[in-house]
């Protein structure tokens, strides 16, 4: 019998000083049995970094949500979908292959990848030339040590604050605080 996903609830208060976006989000994350707390929390941080696009891109007329992730490779890890059903932003975390990213670029206005982990640099060197032609694609690197620290914030029921300032994000709970400075590769 297959193991089911574990459900996590997060109340996320975002203060994006860079973009003037301040909002609270009640989120549900389904963590696939093969997904780590680190990866799940990177998904949450990526969503927080892009939440301002809900207002900036769609003027509030859209849905910011997590996708099926590892359960469905054709679904984004997180996305911003307007009310016509059009994917405005497609977010992937980890080190995806080039073909799924090419498909994602044909389905969304913008595709963002947040690579993390010690193997991210090796992945990027191997895939960079294949991705240069994808104009809609952005690739970001989260430092491995900071991404690992995100796992300490994971709880079944989370109260989190995300502060985005000068391109960096600080994700905090009562237990800990993690500061991440993403580096843009593409």
Based on secondary structure, the structural category is alpha/beta
**Largest sheet: number of strands, sense, barrel closure:** 6 strands, mixed
How many domains make up the 3D coordinates? 1
> Which word captures the global form?
globular
Please, how many helices?
Answer: 5
Number of strands: 11
Q: Spell out the CATH superfamily.
A: Restriction endonuclease-like alpha-beta roll domain
Q: Averaged pLDDT, please?
A: 93
CATH architecture: Roll
CATH class: Alpha Beta
InterPro entries: Restrct_endonuc-II-like, YaeQ, YaeQ_sf
Protein name: YaeQ family protein
Pfam family, one: YaeQ
Q: Brief overview, please?
A:
This protein is of the alpha/beta class. It is built from five helices and eleven strands.
Describe what this molecule looks like in 3D.
By secondary structure, this protein is α/β, with parallel strands linked by helices. It has a single domain (6-184), classed as Restriction endonuclease-like alpha-beta roll domain (Restriction endonuclease-like alpha-beta roll fold), CATH 3.10.640.10. Helices cover 25% and strands 39% of the residues. It has helices spanning 37-50, 53-56, 98-107, 120-131, 144-150, and strands at 6-16, 21-31, 62-66, 78-82, 87-93, 108-115, 137-141, 157-165, 168-172, 177-180, 183-184. The strands form two sheets. It has a six-stranded mixed β-sheet with strand order 3-4-5-6-7-11. A five-stranded mixed β-sheet has the order 2-1-8-9-10. The radius of gyration is 15 Å and the shape is globular. The N and C termini lie far apart (42 Å). The mean pLDDT is 93. It comes from Simplicispira hankyongi. InterPro entries: Restrct_endonuc-II-like, YaeQ, YaeQ_sf. This is YaeQ family protein.
């Amino acid at each position: 019998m297959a193991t089911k996903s574990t459900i996590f609830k997060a109340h996320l208060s975002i203060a994006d000083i860079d973009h003037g976006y301040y909002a609270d989000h009640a989120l549900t994350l389904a963590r696939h049995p093969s997904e780590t707390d680190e990866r799940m929390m990177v998904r949450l941080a990526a969503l927080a970094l892009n939440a301002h696009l809900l207002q900036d891109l769609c003027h509030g007329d859209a849905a910011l949500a997590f996708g099926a992730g590892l359960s469905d490779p054709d679904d984004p890890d997180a996305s911003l979908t307007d009310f016509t059903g059009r994917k405005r932003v497609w977010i992937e975390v980890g080190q995806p292959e080039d073909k799924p990213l090419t498909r994602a670029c044909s389905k969304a206005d913008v595709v963002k990848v947040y690579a993390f982990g010690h193997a991210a640099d090796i992945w990027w060197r191997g895939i960079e030339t294949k991705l240069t032609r994808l104009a809609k694609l952005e690739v970001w690197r989260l430092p491995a040590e900071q991404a690992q620290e995100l796992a300490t914030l994971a709880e079944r029921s989370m109260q989190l604050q995300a502060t985005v300032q000068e391109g960096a994000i600080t994700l905090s709970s009562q237990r800990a605080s993690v500061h991440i400075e993403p580096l843009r590769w593409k």
